[in-house]
Amino acid sequence: MRIYSALVIVASLCLFMLLPKSVEAATLINVKDTISTSRPSPSTSINGGFSSGVSTVTVIDNKSRFLASDSARLINNQSGAFLQNITVASQSSDLTTLYFTANTSNALNSTSVIAAPITAMHVIQFTTVNTIPASGNILITFPGASNTTASPSATTFAFNGITSTQLASNNANTCTWTVSAPTIECETNSSIAAGTTVTLLIGCTAQSGGTCTTQAPRLINPTKSATAGTADVWKVNIVTRNASDVALDDATVSIGTIDSVQVRATVDPTLTFTIAGVANGSAVNTGNTTGCTANETTNTGIAATATLINLGVVSNTPTAIDTKLGNIAAQLITVSTNAGGGYTLTATSAGQLRNYSNGFAFDSDTTPAAFPNGLHYFGLNACGLDVNTGTWGNANCESEITGSSNACNYGWPTQTTAVTLASDSTGPVGNAVVAGNGLTTVRYAAGTDATVPAGEYQTAVTYVATATF
User: Would the pTM of this model clear 0.70, i.e. be above it?
Assistant: First the structure.
């Protein structure tokens, strides 16, 4: 009986020696998974029925927050059929209404889903405790159900069709990749020594020193489930194994996805509108040399002010002063606005330049034209970067009488018929932003003849600057 017991003991020892030894996995050091964006992927169902051609829809409030400029996908949730891509303009504060930048091209109902897949590159980094031999592997397992679609998931990071070509490591010869959602495996082509820092980039086609140089299609972040301001936490498992798939080191890291913080500010609309007189004996384009290159000299003998143009004594020999009209005065009008649609500068008047004692008036025309020769004529001319040269003449035109190839065009508005002096359809507009924008030189000129009775002549002009916000 004793001999039998001894034989049993010896047999047991031999059997123990033949069994494979168990390896207790160590914990990886300095483990982290850094994602390029922690924003959840918004995805929700359409609430109600909508015909095609609408730019506003109501949706179910499931905590999904869409942001302006999100490129969203409309999907038939019943069939899974893709309907169209559409850009989000905004979302109501109660999260139940979405506004689009364009109209829908399909009818929508409660079986329709709108989703904006938010993709992120994952940079997984750790330091090995045990050496990973050649033909060993690093196994990364994402949480939740396997999901390879191009739409966000509520349980995991959707793989989005990622392949081995969108994966990289800090040693180009380290990995042979295998993708089988929800796992990604790196089979080691050569051994990785203990104490080595390993960097794996998911969603990267090229890297240098562990930094991605060419990003690729990336994993899609899960949808939102926690309350606003609280992160959804996801756990990713990382295991290093030998060639027999026996675990060497392992660790689990947590990733938080949380709503982006919307930052808003309001800029009040602004409009600055000033009129300044050009001094007598000065170039008419004083203060506006970029957009208006005409530099003839004001010659009335009286300085123009912001509220008064005095043409002085109008000569009946308009060719007496260097072949130009006898009397020229000028003002500089400045318009500055932060309106995105720019501005328009127009003018109306109280009527013709008239003597109210005898009723005689200088001729003028609402359609700008060259000054007629030898007639009693009065008008204004606009010059500047925002001025239509086809209407008023080029930027260096002169106030010659008819016959000059470079004559300015003069016109005069009425009480009911305005003339447009300048406009700029692109804003903001301001002289401080682009030199010449918003500046308009206005020349006033008068010519007379022997038929004009003596006396005081007057009128008034009103300028209107309209900004397009």
Answer: no
